[in-house]
């Protein structure tokens, strides 16, 4: 008998808000977190805007000791530790500093590029012959699994503790990996999520590819335009999202608050064949991923009320919507509501999936659908497929039973997770 899996805790560090309560308010108010950065202008970036969470020194002192903060120069680790710790505490779990590890709890916390600024600092010191000045934490801050290692030590988890990496699909993939571990009885709780560094050394490659918007440097809040006819590229962002997955019986036994149930999902790849490539998804694989996610979750296409899409504000948005219509066999007014968090946060890269999963769960738990910012001029190719009122411009109160969350990443990789409102 496979175990049922629910979400009992969440944490988030996003460009438009830090902390679950403020993030929930930002979603309802459709608050943009995209800002202009003089540093990018000085470095002659074409796109001089981005989404970067704002974390004060006072807030950091709640999560790190003075010793841990000494020499800490990895924004991704900072974001991940804050979000992960918040999710743990939000679930009503305690942090035990001593004693045995918690053998029933594990961590799958992903990232794409981690410790870029620390790498830069280390390279400069090594080139100057000052290797001894690197400090004792340079390795853990630059190894890919540094984030799960940090969280594992803080929380004392004794089950699987690891890091996954799958480009923009990372966060949703981590959630599904943790879900399967609990479903198969290998853990009672799994902290899942993902994080991403910020800054020019992460965003520079995308600027060089000319896939970022460059004409909104003086109007940053208008730059990220998923599903819009005037979309001109994604805005780079950063941050972290975290969710505490738990076996249903365990959550009930300890009287935990349950945000929603995870029904299942699917992960696949288009193999960079056909129309798939390093940077573009193979539509056949996307459609298959959606269909298998529904099959694995044992629900019908008609059960989907809302889609939180990947939808990056590029030319691929209309293709993504078309893939959904084909996978679900639903068009026009029969199509589910659809929205994109990236209109407010930009594309948070490896952190995108987890932050967007948190946003998805908040919508189910509080029964509303946040609006799509900067989408008054909906793309005509999308309007040929679905009715415009299925792409709300404003936040609407709406009953939601089932929500589908999708993430698609570089390397032609896909993940779709299915969430359902929990009724005791």
TrEMBL record:
GO annotation (BP), single: fatty acid biosynthetic process
Q: Give the GO cellular component terms, alphabetically.
A: cytosol
Where, subcellularly, is it found? Cytoplasm
Could you tell me the keywords of this UniProt record? Acyltransferase, Cytoplasm, Transferase
Acyltransferase is among the record's keywords: yes
Tell me where in this chain the Ketosynthase family 3 (KS3) domain is found. 2-421
- Indicate the enzyme's highest-level EC class: transferase
Q: Which GO terms describe its molecular function?
A: 3-oxoacyl-[acyl-carrier-protein] synthase activity
Subunit structure, as described in the record: Homodimer.
- Family statement drawn from the similarity comment of this UniProt entry: Belongs to the thiolase-like superfamily. Beta-ketoacyl-ACP synthases family.
Would you tell me the protein name for this molecule? 3-oxoacyl-[acyl-carrier-protein] synthase 1
Q: What is the species listed in this Swiss-Prot or TrEMBL entry? A: Christiangramia lutea
Classification lineage: Bacteria, Pseudomonadati, Bacteroidota, Flavobacteriia, Flavobacteriales
